[in-house]
Amino acid sequence: EEKEAAAAAAAVGRASMGSLSSRVWGGPRAGGAAEGSEGGRRVDGGLPKRKRGEGLSESESGEESDGEERLLSTPRRKKLKSTSKYIYQTLFLNGENSDVKICALGEEWNLHKIYLCQSGYFSSMFSGSWKESGMDTIELEIPDQNIDIEALQVAFGSLYRDEVLINPSRVIALLAAASMLQLDGLIQQCGETMKETINAKTVCSYYNSAGTYGLDSLKKKCLEWLLNNLMTHQSVELLKELSINLMKQLISSSNLFVMQVEMDIYTALKKWMFLQLVPSWNGSLKQLLSEADAWFSKRRKDFEDGISFLETEQGYAFIAVFKYLRLQYIISDLASARIIERDSLIPADWLFSVYKQQWFAMLRAEQDNDIGPQEINKEELEANSMRCGRKLAKDGDYCWRWTGFNFGFDLLVTYTNRYIIFKRNTLNQPCSGSISLQPRRNIAFRLRLASFHSSGKLICSRTAGYQILTLEKDQEQVVMNLDSRLLVFPLYICCNFLYTSPEKRRENDGQ
């Protein structure tokens, strides 16, 4: 039975092989039709098989030739993913076939001159008449304290790979190394990383590094961030880090985004000066003002009569900053003027000249019928305009005024239904200050709006530019119609105002 079964299996196998052979080689099978055709058509759905010797038509031949040419001429983008990794691992990390050894900060790197020549530093070294050009071992002097071994490792490694992952916490050290080695591409990458990660903790160090390593666009970006955030997002840490020179640039700028009024800039400076003098203080922002007031109050007892704190040895360095305060908009409010007198931080001579200036401005407005600025003088507006602002926490209807003696111009500001409206109030609403009844008054102004991310990064902004607005009694005027895309709350509104015409110009006109 086993023999019969084996014989049967063998017969089946031979039959199968015969059938397979017929299919593969096109041999005859039952029915007489050749394998590969059914009524003259190929089983696989292709074109009818041509007879031996049958050629293509001229059009078919041309089309096929054009198709092949297009196929051959179309580039195919294939990335050899392993090549860069292989070079980095084998040549840089393993140092195979190295022809130069670089020593720095107690560490050694087995590198290759052909890769190092991507660096302007090494390219000059190897191509010139420097003694190092023929040396196999080069000892690098590292004059910059910002450079460490880890930064050099990343900088050297960048010569052997296409992409570098930059850690923001290490970016200053890497920028320092890239600047020394003159790696322009890496310097640019560091600058972009720093622009993307500006916040209260990094902005001062980034600003200083931008100045040291010549990144002007980064320096400008840091200054813009500080102008937007110094008053809108105050923090103890930021006030501690701001240098005298940097604070001077901020306080002198008409682009400082002020919240409330000029008196709040003075208060911020008082807190900042206290932290510069007592950097070990570690309280909260809420405690800072009372602590600063108490500290300066104790120092006043040691002053001679008539001597302000800025005139003392401790305070003298801060004069360069405080002189950019626009005191005329601080003493225009009684409570603020009393605080200035009480603190005795500012020299009396400064205040006397401002009191005199404001008195003459009031007389001109009352007796000389000064109706306000007649034309836009950007320089005058930037240097002398009143800086004030307001935070709108959420959408709704708001109406407010920035108080102070504004020469009889009571300006009401309204936000409603995506409009910002200025109104000159004369008689129809109560006002604590004097009211001018001149038929028309001019006001020069600039209105800016902004929304910020939690990190202080600008989300959106809009400005009306400098304008002159003429208002009759109790007249109101829409000064900005907001796009709904700008309505990201909290919304910060900052204004620059000039209520009277410049005194010097009027004197020249009179002469």
From TrEMBL:
Compartment list: Nucleus matrix
Keyword Manganese: no
Organism domain of life: Eukaryota
A Gene Ontology cellular-component term: nuclear envelope
Coiled-coil segments: none
Keyword set, alphabetical order: Developmental protein, Differentiation, Nucleus, Spermatogenesis
Keyword Isomerase recorded: no
Region span, Disordered: 1-76
Residues annotated as domain BTB: 98-168
Principal location listed in the UniProt entry: nucleus
Gene Ontology annotations of biological process type: germ cell development; regulation of DNA-templated transcription; spermatogenesis
SMART domains named among the record's database cross-references: BACK, BTB
Low complexity composition-biased segments: 1-11
InterPro entries: BACK, BTB/POZ_dom, Gcl-like, SKP1/BTB/POZ_sf
Protein name: Germ cell-less 1, spermatosis associated
Organism: Pseudonaja textilis
Gene for this chain: GMCL1
